[in-house]
Amino acid sequence: MRRILVAGNWKMNTTAASGVELARGVAAGAPAGESGVDVLVAPPFPYLVPVKEALQGSVVQLGAQNAYFEESGAFTGEVSVDMLLDVGCNAVILGHSERRHVLGETDEVINRKVKASLAKGLQVILCVGELLDDREAGRTEAILDEQMAGGLADVDAEALKNVVIAYEPVWAIGTGKTASPDQAESAHAHLRKWLADRYNAESADSMQILYGGSVKPANAKELIGQDNVDGALVGGASLSAENFLGIVTAAT
Ligand code: PEP
User: What is the pLDDT of residue 31?
Assistant: First the structure.
């Protein structure tokens, strides 16, 4: 049985004070580990430390929204994997569509970040997903294949155990337009088959594949209820403890 993960991507939102308040609210309502549902929040870099403190004593895990592949040195503005581990991060989101399409990250750069994170034992939440044009042109699966092959190049089956995949159709992110449960299930089943072909059945069966794209308390149950959907990566709705916990409850 795969565990469920509900992860909140706060993006470039909150202040130190509102982030701490949000983290406290999530920590207070998160279910115990035996529920089968894990909960993670990913605040902006400057708030990782106060949010970690706010999560102290709770089961909620801490994630970062990005990491750089070099260990240290003259890389102004970047944050290394060691730094994330140093402040208590459990995971890092890589390959988010905003990093791909707004900040121009390529599969090659994402792959270097994936490998650097896995080499240090930091769990990777690798995001993949097609643009609306790709979907309309029938290229969804080809794009997913390309992003999976690029992001996971040179990642072996052992290292893959510390990877979670997030399927996030770009047209559904922050738009209020959610993929239908069938569309999500079909993409997730395709991703699992890709993993079985590229790795093996065991790697594919054990992989957590999250859905992301306008997930809310009202649609979470049906989406996460699909056979191949193992949780959610939540943007907008993760900025309210009530909404985020509503999704966690729907997943439980
Ligand atoms: C995201 O940014 O990962 C995301 C899924 O955003 P939203 O839930 O706002 O669509």
Answer: 87
Q: How confident is the model over 171-181, as pLDDT tens digits?
A: 999 888 899 99
Catalytically active residues, by annotation: 96, 168
Specify the long-range contacts of residues 11-17, CB closer than 8 Å, at least 24 apart.
11/44, 11/65, 11/98, 11/235, 12/44, 13/44, 13/239, 14/43, 14/44, 14/47, 14/239, 16/46, 16/47, 16/50
**214 CB within 6 A, ligand 1:** yes
What pTM does this model have? 0.97
State the closest ligand 1 atom to the C-alpha of 173, by its place in the atom list counted from 1.
10
Atom of ligand 1 nearest to the CA of 215: 8
ipTM of predicted complex: 0.97
* Residue 3 reports pLDDT greater than 90: yes
Verify whether ligand 1 is closer than 6 Å to residue 173 (CB atom): yes
For residue 235 and ligand 1, the question of a CB distance below 6 A is answered with: yes
Domain 4-251: homologous superfamily in CATH: Aldolase class I (3.20.20.70)
pLDDT class of 32 with cuts at 50, 70, 90: confident
